[in-house]
Design a protein that fits this description.
Layout: H1 2-15, E1 18-24, H2 29-34, E2 42-45, E3 48-56, E4 59-64, E5 67-69, H3 75-88, E6 94-100, H4 107-111, E7 113-114, E8 117-118, H5 120-135, E9 139-151, E10 154-157, E11 166-167, E12 170-171, E13 179-180, E14 187-188, H6 192-205, E15 221-232, E16 238-247, H7 254-257, H8 262-285, H9 297-301, E17 311-318, H10 325-339, H11 363-366
Parallel strand pairs: 1-5, 1-17, 6-16, 6-17
Antiparallel strand pairs: 2-3, 3-4, 7-8, 9-10, 9-14, 9-15, 10-11, 12-13, 15-16
């Protein structure tokens, strides 16, 4: 089993601790009927599935990523590419998978999917159930789930009785250096039925509002946080890993979304947190001694999954419509910046072999 862990981790490491995929959503029939210019401005490389070409203002820009999914790619094909990261959290690693892009580019479809064609969230939990079942009876695992949203830089508990209550991020008093959120609801899940109940409750409590870009646009970042704790009674070994699945709010610029009043404040908070995410990634890329995780709730909450030997995947979602080209260019340029980052391997393993201490690096070492 240790050999399997080692090989699996080496495979993920060779692919890159920060990986960037791009998924281009299809053009709907309604969009084709409504626009004269509905022809796509994006083209794919027949010889290389990691290259995307974009035509804009008479110029062709080429973006190199780790993988590009064309409009016809299925939910299953997308998940096949991310499942090795999902299983890393069973081995005690912290993993972050997030969808980035403008409103209406398909982020929620990729992460949540629909009832008869689920996205990464449901498929990840099902895979975890399958993997931990295979490891029994040698290993005993506990899988807990929390759901939070970050709305106007306020943390909300989507599984609590009162989702409007504000939460805070604090340092764990056990001396482990791990961050935690006091009062955050945690549900232990043991079956797909449990997952469905958790998701239904979370969706009911999530804040949505209208903008010019998408009638039911989500104006908050939604995070599904899955913690996997394992114990081997024969060896005494313990593991603790965390899987963060993040559906980021739309990244469009304020002028484009037509936001006013409270919608304007929402857009400003969204853009501030996405900018903070970019700053964190830039600091990691440049190997700065100080990484500004505290500049937003989003990056502070994800600190232990964006540093050390954690593993990160960004799925940049792109609309192929010419009317969305400026936003697509912004998203793809951000994606290329992310791809150039390498997380430094922590000198100490996050796996808690023969130890019950936390799997996160200390706050001081990260700062």
């Amino acid at each position: 089993m240790n050999l399997r862990k080692k090989c699996h981790n080496e495979l993920v490491r060779l692919r890159g601790n920060i990986r960037v995929f791009c998924r281009v959503r299809p053009v709907s029939q309604e969009e084709q009927d409504a626009a004269n210019d509905a022809k796509t401005m994006l083209s794919f490389d027949s010889d290389d599935d990691a290259v995307l070409h974009l035509s804009s203002k008479g110029k062709v820009m080429t973006f190199e990523l780790d993988k590009v999914f064309p409009p016809q790619a299925t939910q299953e094909e997308v998940f096949q590419e991310v499942q090795s990261l999902v299983t890393s959290c069973i081995d005690g690693f912290n993993v972050c998978i997030f969808a980035y892009g403008q409103t209406g580019s398909g982020k929620t479809y990729t992460m949540e999917g629909v009832v008869d064609n689920p996205g990464i969230n449901q498929r990840a939990l099902r895979l975890l159930f399958s993997e931990v079942t295979d490891k029994a009876p040698d290993w005993d695992y506990k899988i807990t789930v929390s759901m939070v949203e970050i709305y106007n830089e306020t943390l909300r508990n989507l599984l609590g009785e009162n989702p409007t209550d504000k939460l805070d991020i604090k340092m764990n008093p056990d001396g482990s250096g791990q961050l935690y959120v006091p009062g955050l609801s945690e549900f232990t899940v043991q079956s797909p039925e449990d997952i469905n109940r958790v998701f239904e409750l979370g969706h009911m409590n999530r804040a949505t509002a209208c903008t010019n870009l998408n009638e039911h646009s989500s104006r908050s970042h939604a995070l599904l946080i899955i913690t996997v704790c394992g114990f081997n009674s024969a060896t005494g070994n313990r593991t603790q890993g965390k899987l963060n699945l993040v559906d980021l709010a739309g990244s469009e610029r304020i002028g484009k979304s037509g936001a006013e009043g409270s919608r304007l404040r929402e857009a400003q908070c969204i853009n501030k947190s996405l900018s903070a995410l970019g700053d964190v990634i830039n600091a990691l890329r440049s190997k700065h001694s100080h990484v500004p995780f505290r500049n937003s709730r989003l990056t502070y909450l994800l600190q232990d999954s964006l540093s050390g030997d954690s593993k990160t995947l960004m799925m940049v979602q792109v609309s192929p419509l010419p009317s969305n080209m400026s936003e697509s260019v912004c998203s793809l340029k951000f994606a290329q910046r992310v791809r150039s980052v390498e997380l430094s391997s922590s000198s100490s393993s996050r796996r808690q072999e023969n130890s019950s201490t936390s799997s996160s690096p200390t706050h001081d070492s990260v700062e």
